Amino acid sequence: MSRISALLLVLVALAAPARAAEDVRPVAQVPLVPVAEGPNEPLDVLLRTFWAEYYNAAGDNAFGRNDLRVGLIDLNGDGRGELVLMVDAPGWEAEQGNPFVVAEWRNKRWIAVGWGWGDEDTVFATTEVLGGWRSIDGGKVTLRWSGREYAVEAK
Question: Which of 45, 55, 64, 97 is the most buried (most CB within 10 A)?
Fold first, then answer.
């Protein structure tokens, strides 16, 4: 009888992680909206850091402020919103959606902490919290906190 009980306990223990993964669900949609008009030096610095060749440039895959979607959402529970900045321009969409960067406000500037793919209607913070940071559902990818940054996993 104890072998059967032990076997049942092992089976229940093995099934628990699978059930926990199924319980990951969206808690808040990231409100990705057009960039407000007017100067925004911290945003411009982030854009020039990663997309200098394309941001406010001419040529293939160039984009400007009208091709951006931004949203703020607190992902790490510190009471301050992290930035999600998406490029929604012709030539930038891939099978997984449009590229976006997740950035944290540190030292008076935006610091990238992850990259993902989605569209303005499919980016959600989830119930899953790893290392104090909420995972992000991008529709076809999931971003999970790795301890220093978000890692992208295909769904």
Answer: 97
Q: How far apart are the first and last CA of the chain?
A: 41
The whole-angstrom distance between residue 130's C-alpha and the CA centroid of its chain comes to: 13
Q: Could you tell me how many helices (H) and strands (E) the chain has, helices first? A: 2, 10
- Residue found by looking up tokens 């301050």 in the block: 80
Q: Cα–Cα distance between 102 and 116 in angstroms, integer?
A: 8
**What is the dihedral sign for C-alpha 64, 40, 110, 96?**
negative
pLDDT tens, per residue, the chain with 155 residues:
454 443 333 434 444 454 444 578 999 999 999 999 999 999 999 999 999 999 999 989 999 999 999 999 999 999 999 999 999 999 999 999 999 999 999 999 999 999 999 988 999 999 999 999 999 999 999 999 999 999 999 98
